[in-house]
Amino acid sequence: MEQAGLVKPETLDGLIKILHKIFENDIINVEEVQNIMEAYASKPQEWMKFAKFDQYRYTRNLVDEGNGKFNLMILCWGEGHGSSIHDHTDSHCFLKLLQGQLKETLFEWPDRKAHGDMVQKSQRILKETNSIGLHRVENVSHTECAVSLHLYSPPFSHCQTFDQRTGHRNTVRMTFWSKFGERTPFWSQLL
Amino acid sequence: MELFEGASGVEDVLDLSHLNSNSLNFNSIGDKRRKDTRHLHLSHNRLMVLPDSIHWFTNLEFLDISNNGLSVICEDITRLTKLKTLLAKNNRLDEFAMPKEFGTLQLQVLNFSGNRFEEIPAQFLELQRLQSLSLGGNRLKSIPAEIEKLTSLEMLYLGGNLISTIPVELASLPFLTYLVLCDNRIQSIPPQFTRLHSLRSLSLHNNLLTYLPREILSLVQLQELSLRGNPLVVRFVKDMTYDPPSLLELAGRTIKSRNLQYSEEDLPSHLIRYLDLASKCPNPKCAGVYFDSCVRHIKFVDFCGKYRLPLMHYLCSPECSSPCSSNPQSDADSDDDQSVPADRLQRVLLG
Q1: In which residues is Fe cation bound (chain A) (predicted)?
Q2: Across the interface, which of A84, A143, A163 has its CB nearest the CB of B136?
Q3: Burial A95-129 (b: 16+ CB within 10 A, else e)
């Protein structure tokens, strides 16, 4: 029986099957997940049906619910679209670019007593990442869209967002623009 | 380089993109195919010119010539009377590259991002049906006042340029829903933005803004506002210089506040016009007006309990206080009473 870590995912469906296998175990090897995500070669015709863009802001499009152990989703970023500074509650976040580029800025956790600008840790252009902690992700291109594949384990529905100027934090509920290729109705979106 | 017709399975789409070719010859495309084609993809080649024969595609509605080496657009493109969408991103085009009669086209969507425009060409401002205009990532130094001619405009993307001021006329666009001005050098937003009733999303991040006009609160449709990367003032600035009002201003204030009647028979027309320009002091306890002489006052407003934005408005004298608080001294502190209701501006991306 072959180990999941040695198989290169040929298709998006193949990747999902391998991920399901990996997450059957209770203990997950972070590096294994990272390698599998990296190994998938992006083929637009496979993920195009999930890549629904919105003119005004980036969208989160659910691809697979991972039997409750993980969420796999595709984010679509129009020109200039960016996220707020956010954490991932206590989940692991794996990110891989399928098209275009994203800039990631990592931040120090603000001291609850301190006021004033949040401290930037680092900035880089992403191809893929496995991040813990606070970051802002942006498509800084004025000409190209970006599409990224995200895996979160365990899945989470709330996270904190931060005001860069003051470190003030806020809990927000995450919503999906579409699920499994179908646009989710407006009434189910809040923030 | 000769091209084969069977490039795409769908009859009205002709895909000649990503062929790495530096010239195109449409001779091999049959008459019927030329007439049937509605969508023509020529992006990601190495074209230096767009062939004149482009006009053979008489029913063309969508043309993508992005990611080539074009430095000029041929005049024959103006013969494509049904063209609705033109994408020409990432070329070497500037305002001198556009054909003279370009403004006669019936375009609805125009994307010239990633080029070398230093000015918005006059021909673009003739496009009455234009709904979406993108000139992101160019070298624009300003926005012309004639932008108000684009009365159908809903989407305007000008991010990544060198713009330092915004003309008041931009606020005259009645259907503008999405306005992107990020990554520029903008120092202030005109208070006339209050007229942009349809504005849903405003992108201002990475500019030189220190405050916003108070009038921004009246944009009831606004759901997204990005302000990160601006040097927004965080504390009230106490020293605001105040020029004493002129005699003309004092006379004007008296006439207005005492409701003295006047007509064109009493006064020369330039004074009538001056009196019509009176602005009401926002302080509800003050029935005063002001003309040119006023105090700029910065007020911090809480948005949904999340973010504090510095908003600026004008008061008629230093003795007047902001409508937001009864005690002018409290403006010096960080805590404010005024807050915007939670259903407004839910997605302020300040953070």
Answers
A1: 86, 88, 135
A2: A143
A3: bbbbebbbbbbbbeebeeeeeeebeeeeeeebeeb
Q: Encoding tokens for residue B284?
A: 């509800």
Task: Judge contact between A30 and A37, C-beta under 8 A.
Answer: no
The second-level CATH assignment, the architecture, of B8-226 is: Alpha-Beta Horseshoe (3.80)
**Smallest Cα–Cα separation from B109: which of B89, B139, B79?**
B89
Contact A164 B89 (CB under 8 A): no
Model-level ipTM above the cut of 0.95: no
B207 and chain A in contact, CB less than 8 A: no
Average pLDDT over residues B255-275: 88
- pLDDT at residue B349, as a whole number: 43
* Residue in B67, B127, B63, B123 with CA at minimum distance from that of residue B95: B123
B308/A166 CB distance under 8 A: yes
Residues 47-106 of A with CB under 8 A from B: 55-57, 79-80, 82, 84-85
Task: Fill in the DSSP letter of residue B82.
Answer: T
A36 CA to chain B: closest CA distance, Å? 29
CA A77 to CA A54: how far, in whole Å?
Answer: 8
Determine the Cα–Cα distance for residues B171 and B185; give it in Å rounded to an integer.
19
pLDDT tens readout for residues B207-237: 999 888 878 777 878 888 888 888 877 655 5
Which one of B157, B228, B346 has the shortest CB-CB distance to A164?
B228
- What pLDDT is stored for residue B347 in this prediction? 45
At residue B323 the predicted structure's pLDDT band, cuts being 50, 70 and 90, is low
Within 8 A of B89 by CB-CB distance, chain A residues are 143
**For residue B334, what pLDDT is reported?**
37
Query: What is the structure's pLDDT at B294?
Result: 63
Give the pair of three-digit tokens for residue B241. 């210089």
Query: Is B116 in CB contact (< 8 Å) with chain A?
Result: no
Q: Quick: pLDDT tens for B92-123.
A: 999 999 999 999 999 999 999 999 999 999 99
Residues of chain B above pLDDT 70, percent? 74
The residues spanned by each domain of chain B are 8-226, 236-351
Helix (H, G, I), strand (E, B) or coil at B255: helix
What's B87's DSSP letter?
A: E
Cα separation of A53 and B21, whole Å? 30
